[in-house]
Design a protein that fits this description.
- By secondary structure, the chain is α/β, with parallel strands linked by helices.
- It is built from seven helices and five strands; from the N terminus they run E-H-E-H-H-E-H-E-H-H-E-H.
- The protein has one domain: Rossmann fold, CATH 3.40.50.
- 47% of the residues lie in helices and 14% in strands.
């Protein structure tokens, strides 16, 4: 069967890590988290945050390798710019895989802010961005069809289930 690359993006604090990790757990899919990759690069090199495209480059290389092995891959990253988003379909195509692009949003700004201000970092050594930093982040609108999941309206389990349905559609499996 054709492997599927699932790319889960969105602003920090919207719930994408929660959804992506649950998706990976439920589907038995390798999970690549750009935050974790970037923090490992900082810890093991002379680079400091922000490290530029290095974390994304590593994620693309690892995803390509897994997809070529016939495995689905879940990648979770902010994916804020068209240039970062545009590279993922190319990675999938290069590996002969389908791609499912997901944007997680939180339509309730008070809830989004509460999450940002109250969440601990689950990546050792990584300092999570503050609310003001997130609000100042350059985040370009998406220009092509993709799955949008609102974490203010859906719990993580339902969101992961919807992504699994999209994975199966991308592979050509119908329910």
């Amino acid at each position: 069967m054709r492997p599927v690359l699932v790319v889960v993006g969105g602003l920090p604090g919207v719930g994408k890590s929660t959804i992506a990790s649950l998706l990976a757990e439920r589907s038995g899919t390798p999970y690549l988290r750009v935050d974790r990759i970037e923090q490992a690069i900082v810890e093991w090199s002379t680079l400091q945050h922000p490290i530029g495209p290095a974390g994304y480059a590593v994620a693309h290389a690892l995803a390509t390798e897994q997809l070529r092995l016939g495995l689905d891959v879940v990648v979770e990253c902010v994916n804020p710019l068209a240039v970062t988003r545009d590279a993922w379909p190319g990675t999938a195509s290069e590996a002969g895989a389908a791609v499912v692009e997901v944007e997680v949003v939180c339509s309730d700004s008070a809830e989004h802010r509460r999450r940002v201000q109250s969440r601990p970092s689950d990546v050792t050594g990584l300092q999570k961005p503050a609310w003001t930093q997130i609000m100042g982040l350059e985040y370009e609108p998406w220009t092509r069809d993709h799955l949008v999941l609102d974490s203010a309206l859906l719990d993580a389990g339902v969101a992961a289930g919807r992504i699994i349905e999209e994975q199966q559609r991308a592979r050509g499996i119908r329910h």
